[in-house]
Write a structure and sequence with these properties.
235 residues, mainly alpha, 8 helices, 62% helix, 0% strand, disordered N terminus, disordered C terminus
Length: 235
């Protein structure tokens, strides 16, 4: 009887894994994308999970997935609910309950259940930000200096290193765009090529300054692209 019980669990776990894989391939086929589970054979029958590199909260070592692991291990979905909109709570609760049930069926089922919950949570979180979702990203990818500094600031309770980092980056960026524009500003009015070269430097300069100002103040004046005629005649 015990053997039959174990066999039933094994069969059920295998069925769940196959169901995940088939659903994964069906979604990939409909969306014209690569499946998350590329193969069952070729390496002793183990299942590989494909992850791509992009975005902070998309990472398997990012804050969303890190908290998702804690939620699943503790059985408390409230750990991750702050990361989704209230309107999306039902979907996340349902995905969480499903994952908690399936992960009890065995190691492979647990791996797939966890991954499916991570995918669902990150996708819903990204949608709440109005951002696209392109899959989970691998751990240890290069995020540049700003994001790690911002996270460390929260842990240290001091933002001074972040402001210094941003101030220097902004200073360099402004000088770069400014010099590109000012070096091309004086040109013969009959030299149309030179005029266009100036505009090609002027527009990025103005937009760079505008974006910095909007991000810093929350302002949105909607400058948009300047036409060549306006840029040449006004400046």
């Amino acid at each position: 009887m015990r053997t039959k019980s174990i066999d039933r669990k094994a069969i059920l776990a295998t069925t769940v894994i196959l169901a995940f894989a088939l659903a994964d391939r069906a979604v990939a086929w409909l969306l014209g994308s690569e499946p998350l589970i590329p193969a069952f054979a070729g390496d002793g029958g183990s299942v590989g999970l494909l992850v791509w590199a992009f975005g902070h909260c998309d990472g398997v070592d990012g804050p969303v997935v890190t908290l998702a692991r804690k939620a699943l291990d503790s059985g408390n979905v409230n750990v991750v609910l702050p990361w989704v909109r209230k309107d999306d709570e039902v979907e996340i609760r349902r995905a969480f309950e499903h994952a908690v049930s399936v992960r009890k069926l065995g190691p492979q089922a647990k791996m797939l259940a966890d991954h499916h919950f991570f995918e669902t949570l990150v996708r819903v979180h990204r949608a709440g930000e109005g951002a696209p979702y392109t899959g989970l990203k691998p751990a240890g990818r290069d995020l540049g200096p700003a994001i790690p500094a911002a996270d460390r600031a929260l842990e240290d309770g001091s933002v001074e290193k972040v402001t210094s980092l941003l101030t220097e980056a902004i200073r360099q960026g402004v000088h770069k765009h400014f010099h590109a524009a000012t070096s091309r500003r004086k040109f013969d009015v009959n030299d149309v090529t030179a005029g266009r070269e100036y505009v090609e430097a002027y527009v990025p300069y103005i937009h760079y300054i505008e974006r910095l100002w909007q991000d810093a103040t929350g302002a949105a004046h909607g400058h948009h692209a300047e036409s060549a005629e306006h840029a040449v005649h006004e400046h």
